[in-house]
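Weekly structure sync, notes
Attendees: PL (lead), two postdocs, one rotation student
Agenda item 3: pending single-chain targets
PL asked that the sequence for the first pending target be pasted directly into the notes so everyone works from the same version. It is reproduced below exactly as submitted, 253 residues in total.
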Amino acid sequence: MSSSCNTSMECVIAPIVKLNKLVTIQVSEDDNAKDYENQLNEMKEILNSHELQIDEFENRIKCCQHPMNMDYCKTSVFVTGCLTMLSNVKTHLMAVKDDPTPVLSVSQEQEIVLLVHFIVNTGLVRHFDFQVTVSTPCAEERPQCRYEDLNFCTRQIISLCENDLLRRLILPKFLLQLIGALLMLSYSPECRMQIEKDQRMFFLSKLTVLITKWSKLHDVAYNLLVLQGSRKRSSPPWLQKHCGNILSKCLLR
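Predicted structure, written out during the meeting:
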């Protein structure tokens, strides 16, 4: 791999390292995490310094200007900024996709996975109407805009997975959560009221791609069994039903 490519990727990953430090503060009990305006300004500065588009970031800030549960919504703004950064990584990886040598170092991959972990927990799992594992906290009262946020974040993560390298980093660790998000957006009664039919069909088509083309059969079956629930963690009837239906189809493959 040429030194120019190395330098280019280092420049792309550098802001993610900064962002991970900011995210660490955001999810901590540190008093700095409560300084919302300062945290937002720092993220804007990171995005602007690397000439990244901040339109979606700014729009998300406006969407969160409502009185209900601002503490819940403000974290969604940070997720949007993180996704903007990862979208930039995808753009650069697509530009060097024909390079036969590894594009990312181990430490660079770790920085990406760390950021995706925050995005998945905050942009997906936090909005679920069910628990993905026994240790997942039970849902609290949450604003309706969480469905819009789940919609947006799921689309963005699916888009990241269209790149082979990013998909290799994301799916082994977050397949369970991504299947859960796509099932909820496709089938849950609440999402059927909040999300247009054409959008639900889009998520259903992406679920098909995820479980038939991007993932191994045994991994899909295992995660569907987890989502289906157990005696210790019951799942809603709609989730049990559709996990069962997909499992039956998996057995016929």
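Discussion points:
- Residues 1-6 have pLDDT under 50 and may be disordered.
- The two ends are 40 Å apart (CA to CA).
Action: rotation student to compare against the earlier draft before next sync.
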